[in-house]
Request: fold
Amino acid sequence: MAIRRRRARASKPTGAFTYSQWDGTQVGFELKADDLFAEMTDDLLYHGDLNAAIRRMMQDGFETPDGDQMQGLREMLEQLRERRQEQLDNHNLGGIYDDIAQELREVLDTEREALQELLDLAGSTDDSDAANKAQNGQIELDMLPPDLGGQMKGLQNYDFTSEAAQQQFDELVDKLREQLMQNYVDQMSGAIENMTPEDMARMKDMMAELNDMLEKHQRGEETDFDGFMEKFGDFFPENPQNIEELLEAMARRMAAMQMMMNSMSAEQRQQMQDLSDALLEDMDLQWQADQLSENLRGMFPDMGWDQSYDFGGADPLDFASAAEMFRELGDLDQLENLLRGARNPGALAEVDIDRARDLLGDDAGDSLERMAEISKMLEEAGYLQRKEGRYELTAQAIRKIGQNALGDLFSKLTADKLGRHSMEESGVGHERAYDTKPYEFGDPFNLHIERTVRNAVTRSGGGTPVRLTPDDFEVERTERSVRSSTVLMLDLSLSMPMRDNFLPAKKVAMALNSLINTQYPRDFMGVVTFAAVAHEIRPEELPEVSWDYDYGTNMQHGFQLARKMLARQSGTKQIIMITDGEPTAHLTPSGAPYFNYPPSPLTIDLTMKEVMRCTRDDIRINTFMLDATSYLTNFIEKISKINGGRAFFTTNENIGDYVLVDFVENKRKLLHGR
Reply:
């Protein structure tokens, strides 16, 4: 059975497997889109490449929250290699013809015994004709060639004396024809069991028509695929749906046969050829098979026609076992090629899961079946969308990443450290508090209709029309709101990943963006990334941001972009900078980056000038330092002294605590006017 998945034809029932979409009722572990997305999030954030993150998840596999292990392709490929090597280490082809030779010896022994009995009987009865027949028979047997093919061909024209020997030989011929044809067409046993001359003639017709169809297909002419399958569909358990799949199925079979021939010794190959010549020449099948093989090899040159295997074991394979072994080795090779070439989960839909279970076991089969559905599950959950052959994150996915990052960081904090910090005092503002109060002069006239009418009805005792007075007015309370504008400056210099600081810092950026969007939707958040140069990016681009391989930490350019962004905003303004290095780069007058380590005085001077410009624009700079050196510490302290912002000395394990707690606490102070 081929390892590539096939669809079932509706025109006739076959023994092929059919497949259906996973609906949760089949046996196997449960996999949820949220679990998949959470599993790939860190990889996505670290490398910034969604499609690469999906491929790495496919390669490595993962453990589900329920404790089930989804095997990765890398582990499966190793299993395939081990299974192949186990077969090669345990078996050899030395006995491939031993069973045939033994059965042929038994035929000859039976016939010689019959000839000797005839010769003895002729001597006792003076029957010269019988004696001559027995002697001629013995001479003819003695003159048979030593090779199996020659002996088989000679005995086909031999007039047996023993009916038992004749029957043994006929059965041996039928069996060998069956095995040889099984190598030619890789048939299931039911299709060629007890093959008659009529069956072999039909097989010859099938090959002839297939050769004709192949040549027409190569010339671009129309072929009668459906008519062919109506006549010969039982020869193809793979159940091909079109001429391309049909030819591919035959190519795989014949390539597997050629692999077996390639793996034999020269003597074994000659014996195979001699047997084929002796048993199949009468039906002209050899020519048809050779013609088909040549055509298919030209059409499918990458099927492994020149592949051979080196067997080194002690267990000899007989003819039938060797044929089955090479079919399995061919399936192992095909599955390996499919898995190795899979660049996205959809490519795994080509795998025949049932055959994969046979080769690798149920765990691998379950994993392959679930893995093939990964991208579809994520698309249906709203996390992925396909664009120009690649996957992209949706807005929902970006929000989910931020929420996950925020949840991870919040889970580390105690309740008394951080909360919603709702404002108790009322006042003029934009945020509804979903509570009401009697109207007072100066209040915004956000009239609550239901309660105002109810007050009037209560006062007047009912009846219509309802007449309102100022004392009936009830208005909605509002929370005092203070708008903040924040630009996060994220260091993407090479030192960040080298010191394991990049992923924690990026997760903090995602969490801060999620916090502002969900808890403070009127606030502004911008993002500036900086390495040798700085870039302004949209917060929704954060998931696919990665570090910069150029050397340099250009704070000057970062402050410059952040200041220009905040100039377009209102409210209190701040820059939150996350970095692990001192400034080592600046922009020259031409706009090109200049790098030097240790930092040049000019870089320091230009960076401090940008700090002073931010200070004049009333922009506070709060810096979170990772792995701070004494030089970085001194430099940041100078920034804080000039600007009035704060400096935090953190590690990649607690930076989230510092950034989020500081942001929310500062927001609470602003709301309370402190």
About this structure: The mean pLDDT is 79. Residues 414 and 466 are 53 Å apart (CA to CA). The chain has four domains: 39-93+333-392, 98-310, 427-479, 484-671.
